[in-house]
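Data availability excerpt. The first of two example chains:
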Amino acid sequence: MRAIRLLLLIPAVAALSGCVAAALPVLATTVMTGDAVRDGKVTVQKDAVAPAADAATPPAAPNYTEQFVAAAMFAADRAGTGQSVVPDPAAEDADTLVRGCSESQQPALLVDLDPGAAALRPQVATLSAPQGLAPALAVARGKGLTIAWTSVLDEAEAPLVRNALAASGLDPAGRDVLLLTRDPAESKTDRRDAALSEYCFVAMIGDQRGDFDELMDYLRDSDGPSPFDPLFGNGWFELPPPLIARADVPTTQPVAPMATPEENP
């Protein structure tokens, strides 16, 4: 019934244009060895080879500061409005698409940790954060928002997750909320909804559509229009995953667990 009600709602379309690029060839010249006799002496001209072009400089990593800060500012502006960005299972039209919030709920920004359809794996690689996310989270905390992190990882992985967040600079104080699954049958949507008794999620960041609600994974056309289209860029922010594995810098030793504050609600 939840899916039927929510799927009765809206579409959207976008178009892109192409571009043309040109290339300039690089030439190299070699001067062959030759012998010359002058004043009875033989002189040898050395091979002369044009210097090789410098190796191409790798492109700079994309900077998403503006987009991450926009998400944080949206969350700050929405706090106190009495509206979350969590779909309402009882929704019957676009005007009642999301759940309301009470004064007892703490406004929070929810960030999905899992890259794509996989689970975060903090134990196998050094993790780094995309540019712009740490300062955006600092802005959100400064506005009085709680930062909540969610993943399909089991709660037993909490020490490793906290270590990764601290080491990457995303949660240096180790005070953010972790919403990890409590049993194999629990989905991230279930875990989020269970936390609604304490938190009002006024913005969400994920790197794929299903991060915002599991219903998105059950659409017939995963890239087609959905009833939630009005929320993208307006509470739902599709951005790179917050912790990116650098496989070339493996973790060689287990990380000692940090002292953790009070965990999940």
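And the second chain:
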Amino acid sequence: MRRAGRLLHLLAGRRGAEMLVIDDVDAWAGALDEVAGAGAGTDLIATLLRRARRRGLSAVLTAPVPAHRWAAQVDQHLVLAPRDPADAALAGVPKELTGSGWPPGRGVLLTPRTSVVCQVALPEDAGAETWPPPDGPVLRLRPLPQEVALTDRPATPEQPQRIWLGIGDDDATWVGAHLPPGATWLIAGMPGRGRSTTLATIGAQVRQRTDVLMIDDVDRLTPAQVTRTLTLLADRTRVVVGAAHPDRLLNTYHDLAARLREADVVVALGAVSPHLTGVDIRSRLDPDPEPGRGVLVEGPRVVPVQVARPDGVEAT
């Protein structure tokens, strides 16, 4: 449902002749609520319907009866086989058009001014006319792979500080970020979500650098380990890439944890508090993701990603 929610969000901001078809809009709204929070799915679809006409978007929805919460936001409402008087009245079907024994596809088409009985045409009877071709590129959100090999990453010798993380974003291409001197990166996730693998992915690309400090399980360091680490970080040009349990990091009180809570780049492997990411990432997360699936947050940039795995490293 991450891609479904993203599609609706992008359509709400586009202009041009396009068509959106949603089968069982109530199920869509409920599934989006589980991803983005209670009521978020309904609000997103309702916002899109309100903007549809001026955006040049045509929308076709199906819904179980009663569908009055959607009917008020569309131009035409086809009520199929309105048999129950109460449901028909809620839908706006005149009493005299409420019937029984109607064949499949028979219903009442409601517009702001008319109510007529009609029979839905079968596809072979609908004629050869089709939706006009798009004016520009088709909006397509590609699925992310479950496995990505770091050896397949692009070669960028002109950008030595560029770190590739994996395949991500709407077009499922390689994504990454810059790791300049003095930067701080946080890899946050629950155990088993791929924190150590992500550290290994980054570490494989910084082997020639002497300014990068890689730290796993920051929230479990002993006081002596924290002291030694902070001594190394007295050099402000040093880079810190730290991995931690997100909830425990929020309740860890030393200078290293404080630095990671204000990281320049966050790789969130699962649900992570906005106190760490700076933004709500729920709408960009996959529900029940596989290890290595997460979100790259770099300032206002928030993109889903499947983290690549170096050779010889098992996903952990």
